[in-house]
């Protein structure tokens, strides 16, 4: 085994990556965290106040929470590099990870925590009002729109569930879908239709999100059948059109499901290759919460530690 090989590399950051790094570092493995070049810290760096993360009764800003996790990992010996992984060779006892900057690193174990990205509408105003009325997480931000008109964009189970959840807070909830039928399951559609606070606008797409210094004020809509346009008042816009797991860099190195999520073995974080583990939203397409990602990062670190311990008895471990 190469003397230059590290014990562990964590690809990605966010709650899963930094938690995995904390556990691995405290165990003495001094992991290298390749945190990403553009948005180290994951989706929370684009989130304003986080009120549902345990231990912060007054709430905490998303970027601050990620900074504190990173500092905690570094305190115990983790090394953080801000670059993107572009190529991996994960087979065999020594894994190789290559970054966009041209650096290659070797390790006995790799923990992948690259997360997923919200699918965007890609319309004017969406980026401008991100965190100021535009949200991709109903459970994170619904409370901020108490007694205000809310819009949910989407037609799947997530959109139906978000609309039902947000009806607890908003003065009204309008669900906008580009077709006249839904991808959502019948039980979710029936539940939404039975909710008197939820209205539906079908065969329509959002073409612009409008607002001012205080945030979102209205949406421009276009009918996909007639082409007619209209304006709709809204202060909260929740986009629920799906997620894209950040796994393309793997280029077939691991088993993925049909949607591109990493397949884990049973209830573990083990992937299809020995010594490679995965946690967070690159695996989890159900919960997608910071706290569940952090918990999974802990599990991945413990699985990696168990693997390292089992391999330490041999100088030349095999698959």
TrEMBL record:
GO CC terms of this entry: cytoplasm
Origin species: Bifidobacterium xylocopae
Principal EC category: oxidoreductase
A matching Pfam family: Pyr_redox_2
Gene name as annotated: trxB
GO molecular function: thioredoxin-disulfide reductase (NADPH) activity
Family: Belongs to the class-II pyridine nucleotide-disulfide oxidoreductase family.
Domain FAD/NAD(P)-binding: 7-297
Catalytic activity: [thioredoxin]-dithiol + NADP(+) = [thioredoxin]-disulfide + NADPH + H(+)
Entry EC no(s): 1.8.1.9
InterPro entries reported in the protein's UniProt record: FAD/NAD-bd_sf (IPR036188), FAD/NAD-binding_dom (IPR023753), Ferredoxin-NADP_redctase_2 (IPR050097), Pyr_nucl-diS_OxRdtase_2_AS (IPR008255), Thioredox_Rdtase (IPR005982)
Cofactor binding, per record: Binds 1 FAD per subunit.
Keywords per UniProt: Disulfide bond, FAD, Flavoprotein, NADP, Oxidoreductase, Redox-active center
Assembly notes: Homodimer.
Protein name (record): Thioredoxin reductase
Superkingdom of this protein's organism: Bacteria
